[in-house]
Amino acid sequence: MTTTVRVTTIGNSAGIILPKEMLGRLRISKGEILTVTETPHGVSLHPFDEDFAKAMSLAEDIMREDRDVLRKLAQ
User: Fold this and answer.
1) How many other CB atoms are found less than 10 A from the CB of residue 23?
2) Over the range 63-74, which residues count as b (16 or more CB within 10 Å of their CB) and which as e?
3) Is the dihedral angle over the CA atoms 55, 58, 60, 66 positive or is it negative?
4) Does an H or E element contain 14, and which?
5) Which of 60, 40, 56, 36 lies closest to 48 in space, CA to CA?
6) Span 16-65, pLDDT tens digits
7) Strand ranges, E, within the chain
């Protein structure tokens, strides 16, 4: 389903307001934290997963520390 939303001013920031029906379909509620991922086609919204965030943080640390080894493995 495609829904259009408008970017609006929220305090000193900008944001979008998701319709109630969309919140229900996504199984998210007001105040919940979302993960925003940039994709080649725009952005993707997902409920925040703390375990996944920790795993990604560890993976980024490993990639940063061992980038030369990973670069060699990729060849």
Assistant:
1) 13
2) eeeeeeeeeeee
3) negative
4) strand 13-16
5) 36
6) 999 999 888 888 888 899 988 899 999 888 888 888 888 988 988 888 88
7) 7-10, 13-16, 34-39, 42-47
The residue behind tokens 């829904």 is 3
d(CA 35, CA 20) in angstroms, rounded, equals: 19
The count of other CB atoms within 10 Å of the CB of residue 1 is: 5
DSSP element (H, E) containing 52: helix 50-65
0.70 cut: is pTM over it?
Answer: no
Which residue is listed with tokens 């030369």?
A: 68
Contacts of residue 3, Cβ cutoff 8 Å, sequence gap at least 6: 19, 22
Q: d(Cα 25, Cα 2) in Å, to the nearest integer?
A: 12
